[in-house]
Specification:
Largest sheet: 2 strands, antiparallel
Helix content: 40-55%
Mean pLDDT: 81
Number of strands: 2
Structural class: mainly alpha
Strand content: 5-15%
Order of helices and strands: EEHHHHHH
Low-confidence stretches: none
Radius of gyration: 20 Å
Length: 160
């Protein structure tokens, strides 16, 4: 049975003969939100391109897009639950990466610094991505699975 989520957007009343109104909007299910988030992350090159082939400026732009996407999706989930925490952690990792890049978004032209921060961001995001995939039974694309920690991930759909 599919759960339908609604959010009350307005309540009206009438003082005379009993009456009133209720306005609402339908919300996406958590599954739909998680699937949307994972599909969005699959297309972010900063998460799957090989380290030697990454362009720092393009990665910063990709991380900025991740921040925007996570911020957009946060209102669709319950504040304070595990899903909310995962989206916030992914957004925080992207924010820290963008901040580390500096004003010119190029990590001061130090490839070692860039790689260090890129790996740190991927490492910070990976458990949350794996948890979302597992919690909602959503398979991940092979490129995105590459950033996940090297451990037994048979619990994540698509991992054998």
């Amino acid at each position: 049975m599919k759960k339908i989520r609604v959010r009350v957007t307005g309540i009206g009343g009438q003082v005379g003969p009993i009456g009133g109104s209720l306005e609402w909007e339908y919300l996406e299910s958590n599954y739909e939100v998680a699937r949307s988030v994972l599909i969005d992350l699959e297309s972010r090159r900063v998460l799957w391109q090989q380290l030697g082939r990454e362009d720092p400026v393009a990665c910063v732009m990709s991380a900025q897009e991740i921040r925007r996407l996570m911020t957009e999706r946060l209102p669709a989930v319950k504040h304070g639950d595990d899903f909310d925490s995962a989206l916030r952690a992914i957004r925080r990792a992207a924010t820290e990466f963008v901040s580390a890049a500096g004003q010119n978004r190029d990590f001061g032209n130090h490839i070692g610094t860039f790689v260090e921060h890129l790996e740190a961001m991927r490492f910070a995001m990976a458990p949350h991505i794996a948890a979302l995939a597992f919690a909602f039974g959503i398979p991940l694309e092979p490129e995105l699975r590459e950033i996940l920690p090297r451990q037994d991930l048979s619990f994540v759909p698509g991992f054998d």
